[in-house]
Design goal:
- By secondary structure, the protein is mostly helical.
- The chain has a two-stranded antiparallel sheet.
- It has helices spanning 3-13, 19-36, 72-77, 104-108, 114-125, 131-145, 150-160, 167-174, 180-200, 208-214, 218-232, 235-241, 252-262, 264-277, and strands at 83-84, 99-100.
- α7 packs antiparallel against α9 (180-200), α8 packs across α9 (180-200) and α9 (180-200) packs across α10.
- The N and C termini lie far apart (70 Å).
- The mean pLDDT is 80.
């Protein structure tokens, strides 16, 4: 490919007349370049200290032309947000202990999941003036407030109640610290996201939100996640043992170690009998205690 052909190809992929987008992309590439060289740039989530690789899942374009610019005084005057400090003197002043008071966001926030509440807060922080986006949101709200769709709304509420923020479970699983509860949260969330997509398939497809959820390619990936977790983790045995237990047939070496661990009682008994036979004559009796979790007696 010649230099001219490469330039034409890049222009077809990237709007070089957009200066802000060009500068943001250059800054992102610079950060990725420094990361690849092993430099810790602003301690990016301290991932480098945990030997974690940086993964870019997606890049979203934010058009500032569609945003309604509002200063802090406007937010305060319109009472869009209103945080109230905790009445306890011990917790007063901590940002995490504050709660939402009487505000527009507090009135509108009826979310049943943490990710939904976070998404709604971002919408209030960055109000749009794009008429098409506003019409799409209005169409969803109008559908939900109609009395004939009350059963559908209740179904949505039941599904969204079981959708949790999976960032922490995924972080624990990726760093080999995942518990059975982390796997269970991921499985429940995946199942409910699949149910949400299936529910949207029978709803009016002229509403863009329902159409996007119904046609989303992520549904097949969530099916794969559910199947993998079902084949991997034995939740019933995990609850009994108080730790994460992997199903048999997943890994031959792990199955062999489990069989050896299951036969430790017999090995201990044989060892005790042998030791009792070889006791010195001046020892009349002895007691040997089993410590199976330690691995020896």
């Amino acid at each position: 490919m010649t230099e001219m052909e490469r330039w034409i190809h890049l222009k077809s992929l990237f709007p070089f007349d957009n200066t802000a987008l060009l500068q943001a992309t250059g800054a992102l590439l610079k950060v990725l370049e420094q990361w690849q060289r092993g430099q810790d740039v602003d301690r990016l989530n301290e991932a480098s200290m945990n030997n974690m690789s940086l993964k870019i899942l997606s890049i979203r374009t934010c058009r500032v032309d569609d945003l309604l610019w509002m200063d802090q005084s406007t937010f305060l005057s319109l009472k869009i947000f209103s945080q109230e400090s905790h009445p306890s003197a011990f917790k007063k002043g901590h940002s995490q202990s504050a709660k939402e008071g009487l505000s527009l966001f507090g009135i509108a926030s009826k979310c049943y999941s943490t990710p939904g509440s976070m998404c709604l807060k971002e919408l209030f922080k960055r109000p749009t003036r794009n008429i098409e986006t506003l019409r799409e949101r209005y169409s969803v709200i109008r559908f939900c407030v109609e009395a004939s769709n009350i059963e559908v709304v209740h179904s949505f509420v039941g599904i969204l109640k079981n959708v949790t923020d999976i960032k922490v479970p995924l972080s624990n699983i990726s760093t080999m610290r995942g518990t059975s509860n982390d796997w269970k949260k991921l499985q429940i969330t995946a199942k409910n996201l699949i149910a949400l997509a299936d529910q949207c398939k029978v709803l009016p497809q002229q509403i863009r939100l329902f159409r996007n959820l119904a046609e989303s390619e992520r549904s097949s990936k969530w099916y794969h996640v559910v199947n993998v977790i079902h084949r991997l983790i034995n939740f019933q045995e995990s609850r009994r043992a108080g730790r994460c237990v992997v199903n048999s047939g997943v890994d031959e070496d792990l199955d062999k170690l489990k069989r050896d661990h299951g036969n430790m009682q017999q090995i201990y008994t044989e060892t005790v009998n042998l030791e009792m036979e070889n006791l010195p004559l001046f020892v009349e009796q002895g007691v040997i205690e089993f410590l199976p979790h330690v691995g020896h007696c």
